[in-house]
Each structure stands twice: as C-alpha cells, then as structure tokens.
Design brief:
With 327 residues, the protein is mainly beta. Helices cover 3% and strands 41% of the residues. It folds into two domains: 3-166, Jelly Rolls; 170-326, Sandwich (Jelly Rolls), CATH 2.60.120.260.
Length: 327
C-alpha cells in the first residue's frame, strides 16, 4: 500500500498541532498542518512581507537551521511523509529532516526541548525541491508521539503530511472495558479501499466526531450503470460486532437508498479476491440526513477483522460506527 493511502497522523482534525517554532517571521507555524491545500494570493502582502500559505522563517545570517515541534494527533508508526513546498520557489529550504520521540502525558515546550528528551532521526537531511510534493518513505517500527521538523538553513514549507498506522494504547482500552468503536481511526481502524470517492474521501467514514458538512463524509459519483458502491475496512483489532451506526447527516438529495454490512476474519491491508464474507447487516433502507442505529438487526458472526460496507446504488455517508468488544 502506498504510504499516502494511510492516515495523516498529524492532521488537525485528529488533534495534531505545531507546538513551537524557533522562527515564524514571515508565515505562522500553524499553516503547516492546515487541512486545505495551499493557495497562492497574487499581490497580497502583510507588514512583514509577501503573504504565504505555509510556515516561513526569516533569512538566516548565522550558521544553523530552523525547526519546529509537532504533536501528532494520533500516536503510531510513521510510514512516510510529504514535505509540500507549493508556491515556495525562491524561498524554499535546501534540505529537510525529521526526528521523532515518544513522550507520555502532555509534555510542554520546556520538556520537549530539554536535552533529556530522546529524539530518533527517522529522516536524515534530505534535498527538497521548490513548489513540489517531496515524498519520503520512513522505515521505523517504533510508536511515536511528537516530531521535530528541521529545515536547512531557513525558508518556507507549505504543508507537512505524516502518514502512518495508528497504534492505540490497548492495555488502557482493555482496562476500561466495555464496547468500543472497532472501526474508528483513533482505535486503529483503516479504510483500505473503495469503489469510488469522487466527492468525499473514504477515510472520512471513520473520523472522530460528527461531520461538519457534506464534504466531511464519503461520497461517490452518480452511478449510471448496474452495481453498487462499497468500501473495505480493517478494524483496529479483531472483535465481535454488537451494534452499528450509519450516519447520513447532510446528505439529503444524495444519500444511499439502502446499505448492508459484511465481515470476515483475515490479516493484512491487501485483501485476497476470494474471502468468506458473512452478512452482519442485511440490506436495509436509509433516510436522508439521519443517524441510523442498528442493534437488533445485527447478526452474530463471531470475531471478525475486516468489513465490507455496501451502499445501494451510490451516494454519501458521513460516518460509520461499528461498536463491539475485543478479544
């Protein structure tokens, strides 16, 4: 699987934040993690200089480099990063590097910048191109909580995307007990594939909280032929499904006519063509702009690891919640 198909662990909507930067003279550090794609504003200036949609430090006149510290929204294994220098053409850094650490609790700037904090280099200083998507795979299986992003010697970066696998604190979850959302991104769920996501990304289905509008869900194009749309989901951990929530909020003229859910037990992120899919929720009618709860209709299929969520024939769903118990 291409690492950009994984979850952006540093995404703002997941709680990611740029905590501190040594310099942000021309453009603020917070821009680094903005969800929107960077934009160019011709002729737009501030009192400090040209307005730029990114993080930009002043021109360095002494040896060294500029840096910032990022708290990941969800902790986990980092599989790759994209350093986006869009619109930074004569003012992008020559190189960038990344270090990571794992710190429990809620460390402050003083603790994270202390010499005692153990940083692991996961991306050595690497050449960057201006106005480009600079993609770098990462090979490290450790679970990290924070990043230190360095740029050499100075300059501007529009966005930083940090793709990886969420690693929940399963010991804590087991101590709490009870049902959890097995498919939720914060519990390690991952939408592996889908038939179509023309209007809304498939990962939106398992994001935290309620959708904010129609763009914050999974939505397919209008189907003009036979068939139906679907997604496959890897649960954060195998479990037994007890109840479901299918939320079509904001989808009023484009909600699916009905849906169904199937499940199986297997391993991995790439599913074989032939699998023993078991019906968990029979094909069931849906309504517009509604949070549908299903409990009595959910069939007991034992412990499962992967899902196939079908919508008929097409349309949009804001969120899918799959509540159950873990092994």
């Amino acid at each position: 699987m291409d690492f950009t198909e994984l979850i952006d662990l540093a995404a703002e909507k997941l709680g990611g934040a740029v905590l501190f930067a040594n310099d942000e003279f021309f453009a603020p550090k917070e821009n680094l993690l903005k969800a929107s794609a960077p934009v160019w504003a011709e002729g737009k200036y501030t009192d400090l200089g040209k307005w730029m949609d990114g993080w930009e430090s002043r021109r360095r006149r002494t040896p060294g480099f500029d840096w910032c510290i990022i708290r990941l929204g969800l902790f986990g294994r980092i599989r790759g990063v994209v350093v986006d220098t869009s619109f930074f053409r004569g003012n992008y850094p020559e190189q960038g590097s990344l270090e990571a650490c794992a710190v429990d609790g809620h460390p402050d700037d003083e603790q994270l910048t202390a010499e005692s904090t153990q940083w692991v280099e996961i991306l050595p200083p690497s050449a960057l191109a201006g106005d480009s998507q600079n993609a770098f795979p990462i090979e490290n299986d450790q679970r990290f909580t924070h990043l230190r992003f360095k740029i050499y010697p100075d300059g501007g970066v529009a966005r930083l995307r940090v793709y990886g696998e969420v690693v929940p604190d399963w010991e804590r979850i087991k101590r709490i007990g009870g049902e959890i959302d097995l498919a939720a991104v914060e519990n390690g769920g991952l939408v592996l594939s889908c038939s179509d996501m023309f209007f809304g990304h498939r990962h939106n289905l398992i994001m935290p909280g309620r959708a904010v509008n129609m763009s914050d869900g999974w939505e397919t194009k209008r189907r003009r032929g036979p068939g139906h749309d679907w997604v496959t989901i890897k649960l954060g951990t195998p479990g037994q499904i007890k109840r479901l929530e299918v939320d079509t909020s904001y989808f009023k003229g484009n909600f699916p006519e009905s849906c169904s859910l199937e499940a199986c037990k297997t391993v991995g992120n790439v599913l074989p063509v032939s699998l023993d899919w078991k019906r968990v929720l029979p094909r069931t009618k849906l309504q517009a702009h509604t949070r549908h709860s299903f409990e009595e209709a959910v069939l007991d299929v034992g412990t499962v690891s992967h899902l196939r969520f079908n919508i008929f024939p097409d349309g949009g769903v804001s969120r899918l919640r799959v509540y159950g118990t873990i092994e």
